[in-house]
């Protein structure tokens, strides 16, 4: 049987780009994820270079475990920041390592269960009326982050102020990226994100909001401050870390499955069946296990890179693997890491307006393509609830745990899909001619 090829993609999953194109496309993905991946360790107090290194290796492990069938990038997870900050003030990184390892093990256990129990339940639990709004929430719930990056300048650890220069840089970056998308041709048209970031960076230079001091002070070669058990520290058992971080793995799993849904739609495939949810969960979990052994935070798939896939229609797994390779290399090149780190918030914010919007638009496309009828109250109730809870980030905080609006919206949407009848009572009466 011939292998499926998506002709709508510029480069499909197994298509290998030419070397020059490969480098440019991979660097574009690296830039898209860099800000978020290094922000997590900065907020927690870990070495950003290790986070970059573990994200690259974690992505390569994910690609290997998923048999090279899923174009996804793995980066630092934001879901554990609050807990990791508390642990860092107490027992330090050894406790975070224990919690990160526990998160990875939970993923691997669930992957093993799915391997034996199957994943046929996914189609029943996640029909288009649930999937579409969830995908929209993945994009729109990040809108506030993009707006903050585009407008607010940090003046201290606890204070940010509105800066008109930031907004101007963000809008110019957005406009440039849209222009590149609309008017460029041939290979250069596949690099709108990279070109948009470069344009925004140059504009930011003129506005005087870039500080080159870290680049000047950085060394060309800098070995990351690896934290390796039995080598740099003696590991212990930190039950507080394990019990506080492991349950959140079930929260990030819902986000993981949401990203798989988006990728399914973008690539015209069903990754829940091939290579299977067991492989995708195992890949995610293995990435976190590796991160725990070198000094990194928990790892998860990244919406920023999915946005790049959607915009460029370049779905090649080789491009994502190239981005992972460069992440590993850059982790050891101090000046390159420092240079990328100087990309200011408004540039990332301007790009994010487009990336996150593209993800949300793909959720709307799921509803349209499947002709979801919103005259049916069941569909209206499910979609409305998911959208408002998710976009509003109505998080659930209980017994010391915090579940994001996306996770809560996903769980409630799935529950409503199982509980609500096919037709409302008054709809049945109308069908019977009683009204």
Distance between the termini: 54 Å
Number of helices: 20
Output the structural class: mainly alpha
Name the poorly predicted regions.
Answer: none
- Strand count, sense and closure of the main sheet? 2 strands, antiparallel
Helix content: 55-70%
**What fraction strand?**
under 5%
> Overall mean pLDDT score?
84
Please state the overall shape, judged from the principal axes of the Cα atoms. Answer: globular
Identify the strand order in the major beta sheet. 1-4
Calculate Rg over CA atoms: 22 Å
* Number of DSSP-assigned strands: 6
Q: H/E order of the elements?
A: HHEHHHHHEEHHHHHHEHHHHHEEHH
Q: Can you offer a commentary on this structure?
A:
- By secondary structure, this protein is mainly alpha-helical.
- 67% of the residues lie in helices and 5% in strands.
- It contains 20 helices and 6 strands.
- The strands form 3 sheets. A two-stranded antiparallel sheet has the order 1-4. It has a two-stranded antiparallel ribbon with strand order 2-3. A two-stranded antiparallel ribbon has the order 5-6.
- Helix 6 packs antiparallel against helix 19.
- The longest helix has 26 residues.
- It starts with 18 loop residues before the first helix and ends with a helix.
Task: Jot down its keywords.
435 residues; mainly alpha; two-stranded antiparallel ribbon; two-stranded antiparallel sheet; 20 helices; 6 strands; 67% helix; 5% strand; globular
Secondary structure blueprint with pairings:
Layout: H1 19-44, H2 48-65, E1 74-76, H3 81-89, H4 93-117, H5 121-125, H6 128-140, H7 143-151, E2 152-156, E3 159-162, H8 164-183, H9 192-207, H10 213-217, H11 239-245, H12 248-267, H13 272-294, E4 299-301, H14 303-312, H15 317-330, H16 334-341, H17 345-369, H18 377-391, E5 396-398, E6 401-403, H19 405-419, H20 425-431
Antiparallel strand pairs: 1-4, 2-3, 5-6
Helix pairs in contact: 1-2, 1-15, 2-13, 2-15, 4-11, 4-12, 4-13, 6-12, 6-17, 6-18, 6-19, 7-17, 8-9, 8-17, 9-17, 12-13, 12-14, 12-19, 14-17, 18-19
């Amino acid at each position: 049987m011939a292998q499926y090829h998506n002709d709508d993609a510029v480069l499909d999953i197994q298509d290998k780009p030419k070397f020059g194109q490969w480098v440019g496309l991979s660097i574009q993905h690296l830039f898209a994820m860099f800000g978020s991946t290094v922000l997590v360790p900065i907020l927690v107090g870990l070495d950003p270079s290790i986070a970059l290194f573990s994200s690259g290796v974690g992505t390569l492990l994910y690609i290997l475990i998923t048999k090279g069938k899923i174009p996804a990038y793995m980066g630092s997870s934001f879901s554990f920041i609050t807990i990791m900050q508390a642990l860092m003030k107490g027992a330090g990184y050894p406790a975070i390592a224990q919690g990160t390892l526990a998160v990875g093990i939970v993923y691997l256990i669930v992957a093993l269960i799915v391997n034996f129990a199957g994943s046929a339940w996914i189609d029943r639990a996640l029909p288009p009326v649930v999937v579409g709004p969830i995908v929209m929430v993945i994009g729109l719930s990040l809108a506030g982050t993009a707006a903050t990056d585009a407008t607010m300048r940090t003046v201290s650890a606890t204070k940010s102020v509105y800066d008109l220069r930031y907004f101007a840089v963000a809008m110019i970056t957005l406009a440039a990226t849209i222009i590149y998308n609309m008017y460029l041709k041939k290979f250069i048209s596949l690099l709108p994100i990279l070109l948009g970031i470069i344009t925004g960076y140059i504009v930011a230079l003129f506005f005087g909001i870039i500080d080159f001091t870290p680049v000047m002070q950085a060394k060309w070669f800098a070995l990351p401050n690896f934290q390796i058990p039995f080598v740099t520290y003696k590991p212990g058992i930190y039950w507080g870390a394990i019990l506080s971080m492991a349950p959140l793995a079930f929260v990030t799993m819902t986000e993981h499955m949401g990203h798989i849904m988006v990728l399914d739609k973008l690539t015209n495939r069903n990754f829940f069946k091939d290579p299977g949810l067991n492989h995708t969960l195992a890949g995610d979990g293995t990435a976190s296990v590796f991160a725990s052994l070198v000094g990194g935070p928990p790892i998860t798939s990244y919406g920023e890179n999915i946005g790049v896939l959607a915009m460029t229609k370049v779905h090649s797994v080789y491009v994502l693997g190239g981005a992972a390779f460069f992440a590993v290399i850059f982790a050891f090149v101090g000046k390159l890491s420092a240079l990328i780190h100087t990309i200011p918030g408004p540039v990332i914010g301007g790009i994010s307006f487009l990336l996150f919007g593209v993800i949300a638009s793909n959720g709307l496309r799921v509803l349209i393509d499947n002709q979801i009828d919103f005259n049916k109250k069941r569909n209206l109730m499910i979609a409305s609830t998911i959208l408002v809870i998710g976009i509003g980030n109505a998080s659930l905080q209980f017994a010391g745990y915090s579940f994001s609006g996306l996770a809560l919206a996903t769980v409630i949407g799935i529950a409503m899909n199982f509980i609500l009848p096919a037709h409302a009572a008054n709809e049945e009466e109308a069908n019977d001619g009683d009204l």
